[in-house]
Write a structure and sequence with these properties.
Its EC number is 3.4.11.9, 3.4.13.9. GO terms for molecular function: aminopeptidase activity; metal ion binding; metalloexopeptidase activity; proline dipeptidase activity. There is one protein chain. The chain has helices spanning 4-14, 24-31, 57-63, 75-84, 98-107, 119-124, 129-149, 159-172, 233-251, 259-272; strands spanning 18-21, 39-43, 48-52, 68-70, 88-92, 112-116, 176-177, 182-185, 205-211, 213-215, 218-219, 222-228, 284-286, 293-297, 310-313, 316-319, 323-326, 329-333, 338-340. It is of the alpha+beta class. The strands form six sheets. It has a six-stranded mixed sheet, with helices on both faces. Strands 7-10-11 form a three-stranded antiparallel sheet. Helix 7 (129-149) packs across helix 8 (159-172) and helix 9 (233-251) packs antiparallel against helix 10 (259-272). The longest helix is centred in the middle third of the chain and has 21 residues, at 129-149. The model has no long low-confidence stretch (mean pLDDT 97). Bound molecules: the ligand CSCC[C@H](N)C(=O)N[C@@H](C)C(=O)N[C@@H](C)C(=O)O. Residues 179, 192-193, 210, 221, 223, 281-282, 285, 291-292, 314, 328 line the site of the ligand CSCC[C@H](N)C(=O)N[C@@H](C)C(=O)N[C@@H](C)C(=O)O. The site of the ligand CSCC[C@H](N)C(=O)N[C@@H](C)C(=O)N[C@@H](C)C(=O)O has 13 residues, from loops.
């Protein structure tokens, strides 16, 4: 659980006395309440309250590490108002609508409500032992599901067949899918987020499978590109280039490395193979209660890797009308380097 004391220090640095937390993952991180989308947390310098409604009275009492107040807006806001008089109250700019901001300002006329960014997210980037256990468990379930389904990825089955079998295997192992499984075959591989369709996988194609499991709210994330039959020389060349970029970037992971430099390393390698223009996204991202969280491994990122971060390394190339390749590992930044958490085999073309 993210420490309230650490958050209060971050709040003071940001110049706010209180923080109204509406990002579902942050609500969960701070309170332990697993239905974060239907909860809010108010943190002041002396206390914290979980606000949720009567559907969750029993659940919240069982899960929350902070006191609960059961109500819906505007009663929620009215309950908080006396505590907030004369205070600067931060709201999470990335997770609050303009309409709710208006409502809060109207409900708290004696407070100054100011947008802030990333205060709780900043505390979530390094994972503790409990979080790491959940992430490892999620990845192990995804690895096992992939190992089971990999042999069934062949010409004649649909992308949806593959996605369904993967989801079933993860569900049977006690996990939910972390996101809508991506199975992109043949020319569909040119769509980085081509979710599984009714397309029938053909002979001599590449199939990109991007999947993850969710355990105790923590996500895993892994991509493998699978060869069916004997893909063309062009597809093999793309595959080998992406694998080279992926392995080089993973090998460079250690504390102190700038995330932007890792992105550059992978991008330069792909550019050397004439494929840089087809690498259509960032090298990776942090993973935890959100599938995409800090640190960001994009070229413009200011983030620097620290031990305890869990990140993806996932270069890809996407060539319209031809197809695509993405290879993604889930990687823990350790004190002196890295540990690859995703164990599923990679095809060697
Ligand atoms: C719909 S969640 C899919 C997760 C997937 N493994 C993934 O992270 N794909 C990346 C290509 C991605 O979306 N990267 C983001 C961070 C980006 O580059 O903006």
């Amino acid at each position: 659980m993210t420490s309230l004391e650490q958050l209060r220090s971050a709040m003071r640095r940001a110049g706010v006395d209180a923080l109204w937390i509406s990002d579902p993952a942050n609500v969960r991180a701070l309170s332990g309440f697993t239905s974060g989308k239907d909860g809010k947390v108010l943190v002041t310098q002396s206390g914290a309250t979980l606000y949720t409604d009567a559907r969750y009275t029993v659940q919240a009492a069982g899960e929350s590490s902070v006191p609960q107040f059961i109500a819906r807006p505007p009663d929620t806001y009215a309950h908080a108002a006396p505590t907030l008089g004369g205070q600067r109250v931060g709201i999470e700019a990335d997770h609050l609508t303009v309409a709710v901001l208006d409502d809060l300002r109207a409900a708290w006329p004696d407070a100054t409500v100011v947008p802030v960014r990333g205060l709780v997210q900043g505390l979530r980037v390094r994972k503790d032992a409990r979080e790491l256990a959940a992430l490892r468990a999620a990845q192990a379930i995804a690895d096992a599901a992939f190992a089971q389904v990999h042999p069934t990825i062949r010409a004649g089955v649909t992308e949806l067949d593959v996605a369904l079998e993967l989801e079933l295997a993860m569900r049977r192992a006690g996990a939910q899918s972390a996101f809508e499984i991506i199975v992109a075959s043949g020319p569909n591989g040119a769509k980085p987020h081509g979710v599984a369709s009714s397309r029938v996988i053909g002979e001599d194609e590449l199939v990109t499978v991007d999947m993850g499991a969710q355990v105790d709210g923590y996500h895993s994330d892994m991509t493998r590109t699978v060869a069916v039959g004997n893909p063309s020389a062009e597809l093999r060349r793309m595959y080998r280039a992406v694998l080279e970029a992926e392995e080089a970037a993973v090998a460079a992971v250690r504390p102190g490395v700038r995330a932007a430099d890792l992105d550059r390393l992978a991008r330069d390698l792909l550019t050397g193979h004439g494929l840089g223009e087809y690498f259509a996204h960032s090298l990776g991202h942090g993973v935890g209660l959100d599938i995409h969280e800090g640190p960001s491994l994009r070229g413009t990122s200011e983030d620097v890797l620290e031990s305890g971060m869990v990140i993806t390394i996932e270069p890809g190339v996407y060539v319209p009308d031809v197809g695509g390749v993405r290879i993604e590992d889930l990687v823990l930044v350790t004190d002196h380097g890295y540990e690859v958490l995703s164990r599923a085999e990679k095809d060697h073309l």
